[in-house]
Amino acid sequence: MIEILINGEKNNFESSVSISELIIIKNLENLSVAVALNSEIINKSDFNVTFIKEGDKLDIVKPVGGG
């Protein structure tokens, strides 16, 4: 079991997951999102090959329209 922080909240997973897998688990696959892993922005093209490990901190943000 690994524990990671997603947007400041503790989350537990059975094992390491890729960012792409996490987006599906969190039901965000149909949204445009930006992801920072340990304060480093991850390119969308790297979501499949970037795996989250014990103690990692993720920030997932969705664009918001306004004016």
What composes the largest sheet?
A: 5 strands, mixed
CATH topology: Ubiquitin-like (UB roll)
Please give the radius of gyration in angstroms: 12 Å
Contiguous low-pLDDT stretches (5 residues minimum) are none
What does this structure look like?
The chain is 10% helix and 39% strand. With 67 residues, it is mostly beta strands. The chain has one domain (2-61): Roll (Ubiquitin-like (UB roll)). A five-stranded mixed sheet has the order 2-1-7-4-5, with no helix packed on it. Strands 3-6 form a two-stranded antiparallel sheet. It is globular and about 40 Å long. The termini are far apart.
Produce a short descriptive summary.
The protein is mainly β and 67 residues long. It has one helix at residues 19-25; strands at 2-6, 9-13, 17-18, 34-37, 40-42, 51-52, 57-61. It is 10% helix and 39% strand.
SSE arrangement:
Layout: E1 2-6, E2 9-13, E3 17-18, H1 19-25, E4 34-37, E5 40-42, E6 51-52, E7 57-61
Parallel strand pairs: 1-7
Antiparallel strand pairs: 1-2, 3-6, 4-5, 4-7
Features:
single chain; 67 residues; mainly beta; Ubiquitin-like (UB roll); 5-stranded mixed sheet; two-stranded antiparallel sheet; globular
